[in-house]
Structures are given as structure tokens and as C-alpha cells.
TrEMBL record:
GO molecular function annotations of the record: DNA-binding transcription factor activity; sequence-specific DNA binding
This protein's name: AraC family transcriptional regulator
Pfam families: AraC_binding (PF02311), HTH_18 (PF12833)
Domain called HTH araC/xylS-type: residue spans: 171-269
Entry keyword Transcription: yes
Keywords annotated in UniProt: DNA-binding, Transcription, Transcription regulation
Superkingdom of this protein's organism: Bacteria
The keyword Transmembrane helix appears for this protein: no
Species in which this protein is naturally found: Bifidobacterium breve
Length: 273
């Protein structure tokens, strides 16, 4: 379910400069999904609660409560609610030369997710402006452009994380790795789930756990391999397959580097013990 305010083409003055096509609130709905193969609008959203999954161009990320994301015009925009915890969000769909200029001048290209930005009040102000002044499109156009300018400027400011927030991101990443250690993962995927950049994740994870997220992931996989070799009768090739290694040779080499012996020898040693 959504609360939507839309402005039909021609309703707002100077649409080539700035045009809010629609704005509104999306309420939690596990089936919520939007797909735009090549969008002509900028999609600017603040997540109030819950979480979702977003594909912008070729980049995937998972915004959660308190996050802002900005999807630029001209690229694929696909986003959907997390069925287990669907998000509620305030959003603005807009276009125009002003959006293009702000996006360029504030150097926002290449970054789509802005974790934990205290901008809810600005999004609420924009929505209320459109609700209260629907009959005054000129005022909506002028005042709305100023609010959007303020949001873009805020997004351009570097985010400073305190120790509690850093620890939270690291913990979120660790839980995700623990749940998906048997699957092929990249640090980029883990960072997207945690809601931070790869560099921020590497710093926060290492600060809390003493090793980087990729090392933690590879160690977790090897621990799972050791457990399977000790406690099951699975063939080494099947262990490799279950942990999604690309081939048996690669698994054997990685395991020997970790354990100091081959998988077969490791099983023999533990059987002897």
C-alpha cells in the first residue's frame, strides 16, 4: 500500500529544470517491487523501517532503516521489499536539468547507498509541501527544488561513524557471513548487506574482530570443511561441491594452505585420533 501524490505532465512550471513526477510513502508490503529497465528519473528514498534489496545498474545493495539511496536517471532501477522485513519509506521521483547539475556538482556518481543519514525530516518536509500546496504548483516547484538541493548537499558530506555504529556494521556483516559461509560471497556483497562501503567494512570489521571480512569468510569455510571431513563420510569432492569451490583441485590447495595437510590426510589423522 502506498500514499502517492503525483503531478501530471504540464502541471508544474519549468519542468525541464525541475519536475517532481511523484512523491509519497510506501508502507510495508512483502510483495512490493518496482522495475525500470532504463529509468528517466532520479529516485531518492529514505528508509523509515524494515529493509529491501536494490539493483542499480549492475550494483546490488540492501538498504535498512535510516539509510538513504539515490538512483540516478539513465540506468536500470530495480528494487523490492525484503519479504521477511518489508521496508516503509518516503520517496521522491524527479527529473530535470537541476537534478543533473546537482548530481554532477556534488559528485554523487558511483555511490548509490548513503547509510544512516539523519534526513527523515527533509523528506517529510518535501512530502508535506506537496500535500499542502498541490493547488499551488509554482510554489511546489520552487520550494521543492530547494529541499532537494539541501538533500543532495547533505549526501555529499562524508559520513563519520562513531564506535557503536562501526561495531554494529561489523556485527551485521559477521552474522551475514556466518549464515552464508557455504555460499560464494564477495566482500562487496557483504558490505552491501551491512550498508557500508567496502573500505568502511574492512576498517570496522578488522577493528572489532582483528581480521578482515574476507579472511573471516575463508576461515569459516575451512572450519566447515574440517567439520564435514571429521564428522561425515562424504567424499572430498562432495565436500568441495557443498562449499561451492570451483573445482576439487582449488579446494584441496586452499584446504592444505589452511590446515597444513590435504583433505584426505586431515581425515586420516582425525580418524586415527
Amino acid at each position: 500500500m502506498e500514499h502517492i501524490i503525483s503531478f501530471l505532465p504540464g502541471r508544474l512550471p519549468n519542468e525541464g529544470r525541475f519536475c517532481c513526477e511523484m512523491t509519497g510513502i510506501t508502507y510495508p508490503d512483502r510483495n512490493y517491487r518496482v522495475q525500470r529497465p532504463k529509468s528517466g528519473i532520479y529516485c531518492l528514498e529514505y528508509v523509515i523501517s524494515g529493509s529491501g534489496n536494490v539493483l542499480c545498474g549492475d550494483e546490488r545493495f540492501s538498504p535498512t532503516a535510516g539509510d538513504v539511496y539515490l538512483l540516478p536517471a539513465g540506468v536500470r532501477q530495480n528494487y523490492q521489499a525484503n519479504p521477511e522485513d518489508p521496508f516503509e519509506k518516503i520517496w521522491i521521483n524527479m527529473r530535470g536539468s537541476l537534478c543533473d547539475a546537482l548530481y554532477e556538482q556534488y559528485d554523487l556518481s558511483g555511490a548509490y547507498l548513503y547509510p544512516q543519514r539523519p534526513l527523515k525530516s527533509l523528506f517529510q518536509s518535501f512530502l508535506k509541501l506537496c500535500e499542502d500546496n498541490y493547488a499551488n504548483p509554482r510554489y511546489v516547484s520552487v520550494r521543492g527544488a530547494l529541499i532537494v538541493h539541501e538533500i543532495f548537499a547533505a549526501l555529499s558530506e562524508p559520513k563519520k561513524m562513531d564506535d557503536d555504529q562501526t561495531s554494529d556494521y561489523a556485527s551485521r556483516a559477521k552474522k551475514y557471513i556466518d549464515l552464508h559461509a557455504a555460499e560464494p560471497l564477495t566482500v562487496t556483497q557483504v558490505a552491501a548487506h551491512a550498508g557500508v562501503s567496502v573500505s568502511q567494512l574492512n576498517r570496522s570489521f578488522t577493528k572489532r574482530y582483528g581480521i578482515g571480512p574476507y579472511r573471516y569468510y575463508t576461515d569459516a569455510r575451512m572450519n566447515m570443511a574440517c567439520s564435514l571431513l571429521r564428522n561425515t563420510g562424504l567424499q572430498v569432492q562432495e565436500v568441495s561441491r557443498r562449499l561451492h569451490f570451483r573445482d576439487l583441485h582449488y579446494f584441496s590447495a586452499a584446504f592444505k594452505e589452511y590446515a597444513g595437510v590435504s583433505p584426505k590426510r586431515y581425515r586420516q589423522q582425525n580418524a586415527e585420533d
